[in-house]
Amino acid sequence: MQNLNDLNKVQQAQTVQEIPNQESAGKPAPSKFGKIMGIVWFFASLIILIFVISIIVKDNSRTRKQIEAGAEAALNSPKIQAQLAQEAKRQREFAKQRRLKQLGIDGISEPTQKNDLLNQQLKRQEIAEEQEKAESQKPQEIDYRSELAAYNARLKEVKEQEERLRAEAAAAAQAQAQAQAALE
């Protein structure tokens, strides 16, 4: 029985040793040269990849610049400028129609009448604004009667004070004259 146990142990050991041998059976052990060549291939492919990416980025920036230059040239072309002018004219017409609606001028179909009414309305508004400015800048009317009455009242007060001061001066002079007469 011990022989059987020994035999089983030997068989198990052989199977354990065979498993690694089966894994490496088709592949030879890598050499130092193979390892170095793998590293060289890795760095070479990395450098090539970086070079390709830089070419793509440069090409992309050149293409973008060409597209921008083409777009600018297209925007400056006479055809586009004419379209932009038409669009600006159309926007001015829309703005004019909005102003007419705001001013209550809506049912007139002839453009000259619309322009005349619009100009009249705008002139009325300008005149009203100018009148408001003139009224605000115009000095307030001076009430000459009240100012004259105030001046006369002040003049009367000054005259009364002057008479009082003269009477006091005369009384003081008379008292001094009596005092001197009494001393003599």
Outline the secondary-structure elements.
Blueprint: H1 2-23, H2 32-75, H3 78-103, H4 111-137, H5 144-183
Q: Assign an overall shape.
A: elongated
Number of strands: 0
Structural class assignment: mainly alpha
Tell me the strand percentage band: under 5%
Q: Specify the number of helices.
A: 5
Largest pleated sheet: none
Radius of gyration: 58 Å
Question: Distance N terminus to C terminus?
Answer: 180 Å
Percentage of residues in helical conformation: over 70%
What's the helix-strand series? HHHHH
Low-confidence stretches: none
Mean pLDDT across every amino acid position: 81
How is this structure best described in words?
By secondary structure, the chain is mostly helical. The protein has a domain at 109-133. It has helices at 2-23, 32-75, 78-103, 111-137, 144-183. The N and C termini lie far apart (180 Å). 0% of the residues are buried. The mean pLDDT is 81.
Quickly list its features.
single chain; about 180 residues; mainly alpha; elongated
